[in-house]
Amino acid sequence: MPEPAKATLYRVEQPMATSFDHPAKRRSTSDSLLLRLEVDGVTGLGECAPRAYVTGETSDSVAAALREAPLDAVFARLRAAEPAELLARLRESGVADTFGVRGAGNLLCLLETALLDLLGRRLGLGGTELVECRKVLTGTLPVSQVLDLSLDVEEFLDTRGPFHFVKVKAGSDIRRDAATVRAIRDRLGDKVPVMVDANMSWSAEEAAGHLAVLCDAGADWVEEPLSKGSWVELAELRARSGLRIMLDESVCTPEEAWRAVTFRACDAFNIRVAKNGGPIAAARLIALARAAGLAFQIGVQVAEVGPLINAGRALAFAHPEALTVEAGQWDRFFPEMVVSPRPVVDRTANTVAPAPGPGFGLELNERAAAWAVAHRTEGDPAWRPATPPTRPEVNA
């Protein structure tokens, strides 16, 4: 008889060395769920990062949904089918149909990343090969730089280059935002795209004027200018504006993506692994964007702590035609991490390389134990509380 399969859930609320501020949220700690599966001596590590203002999910709601998921059936499926067959089915049908798990995006992301990691370890495949059955791009990809509300524009320009694509988080004063865009244009010229992210903070009445001001200042794009799902108003705004519109919070599900296309509400999607239900689910939205003639960005959740970093990178290298790629700022937020080896961003060039495999190439280290919250053993339907050691303080 094989050893019983096991699952361990971690909730990582690690203090950040620097905060990140935007119109929808000020974040000073991470809030990720990590799931470690172990089946017949092979492990898989997954992550999700629920954000209530994006999908309506929280870490509590995802953890509660995970407790109801049929994990014994998942373990049995992993044992009964060949890994290559499961991977092909997962790419074709998704985690819900392949493993019989139903739920919202972050639950599916948590499971999909863990299962892909486990299958990658079994098959000896890296992240990009898991996400897409195609030749793996080698080399590096340039990444964008994000100016949030905690940082002055002059300090940003002095310390965060070289610049390939700049995103500016909007504030409460459109004149200040326009001055920020002008300062970036004065320093960087016309070749670097500049996008202003409103994070759903403008009303339909004021948005047209805001976009005109930003266009005059030299912006190229605006992201999520109106409240989520304002399809008619977005279409009208897009028709009147000189700026291209990217949607993020409005496009979490395939149904929302189709509405955006149907209403001609945007020029691009911001694709993020966690909000879109995992890297394979995210790849499907990229295919939809391409078919509709839209651009797309590979984005991140603020303060990802592990597999999401490398899963997003795998998605980016599978789709190098992205408008831009975000690498996140985990290296600035977390002097120490709960995974090893530490993912790398080349800050001298602002580029990233493919993450090493197999799977997403990460293991939990000794710091992770402090964040364990529950564990479950095959054959026992109950999740048992974990007793973690004292949690470490951030080393600022």
UniProtKB/TrEMBL annotation:
<dbReference type="InterPro" id="IPR013342">
    <property type="entry name" value="Mandelate_racemase_C"/>
</dbReference>
<dbReference type="GO" id="GO:0009063">
    <property type="term" value="P:amino acid catabolic process"/>
</dbReference>
<feature type="domain" description="Mandelate racemase/muconate lactonizing enzyme C-terminal">
    <location>
        <begin position="153"/>
        <end position="244"/>
    </location>
</feature>
<dbReference type="GO" id="GO:0046872">
    <property type="term" value="F:metal ion binding"/>
</dbReference>
<dbReference type="InterPro" id="IPR029065">
    <property type="entry name" value="Enolase_C-like"/>
</dbReference>
<dbReference type="InterPro" id="IPR029017">
    <property type="entry name" value="Enolase-like_N"/>
</dbReference>
<dbReference type="Pfam" id="PF13378">
    <property type="entry name" value="MR_MLE_C"/>
</dbReference>
<protein>
    <submittedName>
        <fullName>Mandelate racemase</fullName>
    </submittedName>
</protein>
<keyword id="KW-0479">Metal-binding</keyword>
<dbReference type="GO" id="GO:0003824">
    <property type="term" value="F:catalytic activity"/>
</dbReference>
<dbReference type="InterPro" id="IPR018110">
    <property type="entry name" value="Mandel_Rmase/mucon_lact_enz_CS"/>
</dbReference>
<dbReference type="InterPro" id="IPR036849">
    <property type="entry name" value="Enolase-like_C_sf"/>
</dbReference>
